[in-house]
Fold this protein.
Amino acid sequence: MTEDRSLDAATQGEVAWIQVDLDAIAHNARALKGLIGERVQLMAVVKANAYGHGAVPVARTALEAGASQLGVARVAEGVELQRSGIAVPIVLLGYTPASAASVVVEHRLTPAVTTLELARALSAEVERTGAAPLPIHVKVDTGMGRLGLFPQNVVSFARAVSALPGLQLEGLFTHFATADAADKSYARHQHGLFMGVLEALRQAGFRIPLAHEANSAATLSMLETHLDMVRCGIALYGLQPSAEFAPAIPLRPALSLHGRVSRVATLPAGAAVSYGCTYVTQRPTRVALVPLGYGDGLHRLLSGRGVVLLRGRRCTILGRICMDQFVVDAEAVPDVRLEDEVLAVGGQGDEHISAEQVAAWAETINYEVTTSLLPRLPRVYLRAGRVVEVLAPLAS
C-alpha cells in the first residue's frame, strides 16, 4: 500500500501505466446496490484480474461500497483474494476439477459443482480435515450451452449431493445468453426455466438460500431476475454491457490507459511507418512515438484506425502497432514534447476515448479491451485524485 502519493511521483520512471479510479468503482457498486435494494445481495465479479483493473484493490473497494460476495472463474483467482485477507464468500463460477478439492477446502472457496466427481472429492476432503461443512452452488444450463446441469437433472443431482457429508447446498444459479440484447425473449425463456427448477427443488423438499441468475445486463434491465443475489462485472467497472440499451443507473468508467511520448520527429514525404510499410507519408508529417503495444494488450487491429489523445487532441495511429510502441500523427499538436502524456483510454481536456470506442475500432467488445491489458503495465489506484496504491509487477 502506498498512501497519499502524488500521481507524478507514482508514475515517475514509467513509460506506460494504467490508472484505476477506486471512487468510480465505489460509485458503481453503490449505484448497483441502490438499484437492487437491501434484500438482494451484490456479488462483485472480479475474475480475470477484475477485468484488467486489479482483483484485490477492486474487491476491497466493492466490498466497502456494499458488495457482500465475490465471484471468480478459477481456483487460483480465489486463492489470491483469500490470501490477501479478504474473508467474504468467494464463489468459483467456472469449472473446478476434482483434483483441486484440497485447495478449495483449505481456502474455504465456494465452488460451482456440476459433477459428482467434484462433489465426492470435496466431501472426502472436508471429512479428512475435519473442516466445517463447505457451501456449494449448483449451476444450471438453461440455454447458454456451456457449464451446468440440464434442468431435468437438477433435482436428482441435488439429492445425490445432499447425501454426501460435509457439503451444504447453498446456491443455485444460471447465466443468461442474451440479457444484453434489446430483445429479452430468450433471456425471459431462460428465466422461466430457472424458476421452474427452483420450484421443482422446493417441491422435492430443498430450500436454496441463494438463487442467482442476473449478470450486469439483467441487473440493469430485467428487475424480475434479481432474486437473492445479482452478479455484476462489467457494470462494476463503469462499462456498458452492450449498446442495445441504456443502463438504468449512471455508471462511471474506472480505468484509463496512459503512455508518455518517447520520440517526436518530422518525417519527410514518402517515409514509411512501422512494419510492413503499410503507411507512407504523403507530405512532411510531425509524428509522436508512444511506448504502448500489443505486448501490453493493446490490440494490433487498432493499427491505422485507432486514435489516442495528446494534449487534448485526437491523433490517429499510423501504420502497424508493434509489441512495445506505435506511431501517431501529431500534426494537430504542434507543441508536442518528449514525455507528454498520451491517453489510449480515458479523458484528456474536453476529449474522451471510451473502452467502447476502442472496442469498435478493434472489432471486439469492451470486455476484451480491458481484460487484455497485461501485468507488465503498472496499475496506479486513486481516491479523490490521490494515489493510494501502486501495483508494479515487474518491480516486485
Summary: The chain has twelve helices and 21 strands. The radius of gyration is 24 Å. The first helix runs from residue 7 to 11. The chain has a mean pLDDT of 96.
